[in-house]
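Filed under: proteins

Residues; backbone shape codes:
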Amino acid sequence: MAHSGAEPPSIAYKVFTFEDNKKNRQESLSVSIPELGAGVSLPGVVAARCGAKVILSDSARTPVCLENCRRSCAANGLHDVEVLGLTWGEVSPDLVLLPELDVILGSDVFYEPQDFEDVLVTVAFLLRKNPRARFWTTYQERSADWSIEALLHRWSLTCVDIQLEEFGADRSELAASTLPGNHSVQMMMVTLRTEDVGL
């Protein structure tokens, strides 16, 4: 994939290809992501490439991650995707002014246990503002001692585990990416508790 001359020459790009076989017809989507570590926004870039209106975010405190989001967009020809600095646990003007949302995607947001409540405070705020929205996230089980169950209850949220095999995402190699070691990746969808939606 061609990249503009504005990129520093030291940035390597990895191409992820997602394939789907439907009724004797194979569809695929490839995205190019800079290999920069944090803030490359793969799920949001894939959603935008599939035609969704997307706003990408990372912590307002990590401008390098925000720049990585912009690089990911540029590498994929996504010139109309907005990138915002939003920090978990902080109700900023940018957070309050977000337009109506249908889906909130979180990529590896449950990494550090001390951040779990900040993540869920922000998700609860967004879901109260957008009661029909859903928060979809994947997470890697890193410790059996880490749980968000009490925090979900505290913030009137509920969670449904999504079985990855339901859509063929339970393979050890996915999108031409192999994770080293033995990893257990889970997916979940978080919503407001039904009695708190008030629809």
About this structure: The chain has a mean pLDDT of 85. Helices lie at 42-49, 63-75, 93-96, 116-129, 149-154, 194-197.
